[in-house]
Write a structure and sequence with these properties.
Radius of gyration: 17 Å
Structural class: mainly alpha
Number of helices: 4
Protein name: NTP pyrophosphohydrolase MazG putative catalytic core domain-containing protein
Organism: Serinibacter arcticus
Shape: globular
Strand content: under 5%
Order of helices and strands: HHHH
Number of strands: 0
Length: 112
């Protein structure tokens, strides 16, 4: 079974392959816009899970919200792969980002 990093890199290459022949900048804009689209689905699922639309009522579950959040994360990581062009780079960069945020939060009371 391939590693998660390899799977994300493969997914990113597959998405890019579907854009062969398109302007590179337009492809990048599309990849970045997709992150926002997925984020909108998180909000829609949360509205549905909490019944905030009285016309529709409860249409989703918190598990649906979690699935949409994971779609955002995966879409963002695949976009990082696209921008960096280094297979597997997204998870290494994510790990470094998490470490940096943790280091910034420790002086403010974050415990390990």
């Amino acid at each position: 079974m391939p590693t998660t990093a390899a799977q994300i890199a493969s997914l990113s290459r597959w998405i890019d392959a579907g854009s062969t022949g398109r302007d590179a900048e337009a492809v990048t804009w599309g990849r970045l816009a997709k992150v926002s689209e997925e984020q909108g689905e998180v909000i829609a699922a949360y509205i549905g899970a909490t019944g905030q639309n009285p016309r529709k009522g409860v249409t989703h579950t918190i598990d649906d919200v979690v699935e949409e959040l994971l779609d955002v994360a995966l879409t963002a990581l695949a976009a990082v792969e696209h921008l960096r062009g280094a297979p597997g780079d997204s998870l290494a960069l994510l790990d470094a980002k998490v470490t940096a945020v943790i280091d910034r939060a420790r002086p403010h009371g974050l415990e390990d």
